[in-house]
Every structure is written in C-alpha cells, then in structure tokens.
Write a structure and sequence with these properties.
This protein has 3 domains: 72 residues, Ribbon (Laminin); 53 residues, Laminin; 35 residues, Laminin, CATH 2.10.25. It has 2 helices and 15 strands. The longest helix has 25 residues. The N and C termini lie far apart (171 Å). One of its GO terms (molecular function) is calcium ion binding. Keywords: Disulfide bond, EGF-like domain, Glycoprotein, Repeat, Secreted, Signal.
Length: 222
C-alpha cells in the first residue's frame, strides 16, 4: 500500500506539470482576439466588412482627411446646413431633420440666372418683364410697375396699367391705328337719325327730307 500511494502521488504531480506547461504553450498562440481589436482600432468606426465595397457601413463614407468611415451621408441634402449623422441635418436655424429648407433667394421673385464670363460665374437677377423696373427692397430685388403715363405720348387721356398703359379719347373721338392718337368718330355709321345724318368733329346732326321736320328728340322726323 505505501508503494501504491507514492505511485499515485507521482502521477498526480506529472499531470499537474503537464497541464501547467500545456497552458504556457497554448495561451501565447491565441492572438486572434488581440489582433482583431488592433485591426478594428486601425480602420475606425462604422466599418462593415462583408459585402461592402469601401468597407463603410451604409450611411457612412471615408473621410478624405483620416481615411476612416467617419463622414455621414445625407441622401436628401442639407442645403445651407450640415450633415451630422446618416440622413440627419443640422440646419442654420438650429432645427434638425432629414433635410433643410432652402434660404430665400437674393434675386427676388423672378429668381436668378447664372452669368459666366472667362471661366468666372456669378448669380444675377433675371430681367424684369416689359413695363417693370428692378428695385432693391428689404426683401431683395423686386420688379415694380413703371408708370408709362409719365412719358407716354397720348393725344387724349393716358391710363396706367400693370406692365403698360392705354390711351383714351374723349366723347365723339376714337383711337387711331397707332393706339396713341385720336380721330373723329363717324357717329352716322350707327344710323342714329331717321332720315339724314351729317357727321361733324366730335358730334353729328340729323335732318329730314322735304315735307318733314325734325322732332324734338333731334333724331326722328315728323
């Protein structure tokens, strides 16, 4: 029995020594978790390896400065704001959303055109419609109506309209073909007299055939 006890103790010591020496050999070889962590730190956040061409997760792209996936993407654009996260904009007024409203244009209600000369471009206000002039207001450029009657050459009365003007003639006169001068209106063409009609400048006169006299209404014959 004493011999058997010594033998058992020796075997237990050998097993213990084998285990301790085995762990010493196995542990240093398990480098995968440590190397993966180093690789993860090297490429930065928002990295998705499988099935992604750039390696960045959806909604992110490589930042030109660092080469890491730290630049968020906003599909709808942020206008004058900035993209702070995937499809999340920080707007100039402090509001956040998937996009930012465009600021009011500086060219007024008729918008802007792009004028380019020798490679340089600038936004310029569009030309106002005929009969309007361009004016600076607190809200930007506006097109205001021109009062053409200040310089229009109407023979009769000038009436200003939005974007234009109209000439009017007095009683018994009508506009000529040039729409500015006046001519006498031949009222006799409307046959206002029962028998005879004689046109005059700005008026007319009725008369009757022999054997009749003019009625008091100055048109009928009795």
């Amino acid at each position: 029995p004493p011999v058997m006890l010594v033998e058992l103790l020796f075997q237990a010591a050998c097993v213990s020594l084998f285990l301790s020496s085995g762990q010493g050999r196995v542990y240093p070889a398990r480098k995968k978790p440590a190397s993966f962590a180093v690789e993860r730190r090297r490429v930065g956040p928002h990295v998705c390896f499988p099935g992604s061409g750039s390696g960045c997760c959806p909604g992110w792209m490589l930042s030109p400065g660092s080469g890491k996936c730290t630049l968020p993407l906003c599909s709808f654009g942020c206008g004058a704001g900035s993209c702070i996260a995937p499809n999340l904009c920080m707007c100039p007024d402090g509001e956040q959303g998937i996009t930012c409203p465009e600021p009011p244009g500086t060219c007024g209600e008729y918008g802007c055109d792009l004028s380019c000369n020798h490679g340089g471009c600038q936004e310029v206000a569009r030309v106002c419609p005929v009969g309007f002039s361009m004016a600076e207001t607190a809200n930007g450029v506006r097109c205001t109506d021109i009062d053409e009657c200040q310089s229009a050459a109407c023979e009769g009365t000038c009436v200003n309209t939005e974007g234009g003007f109209a000439c009017e003639c007095g009683a018994g006169r009508e506009l000529s073909a040039d729409r500015r001068s006046c001519r006498d209106m031949d009222e006799c063409q409307a046959t206002p007299c029962q028998h005879r009609c004689e046109n005059s400048v700005g008026s007319y006169r009725c008369s009757c055939r022999p054997g009749y006299h003019l009625h008091g209404n100055r048109h009928s014959c009795v």
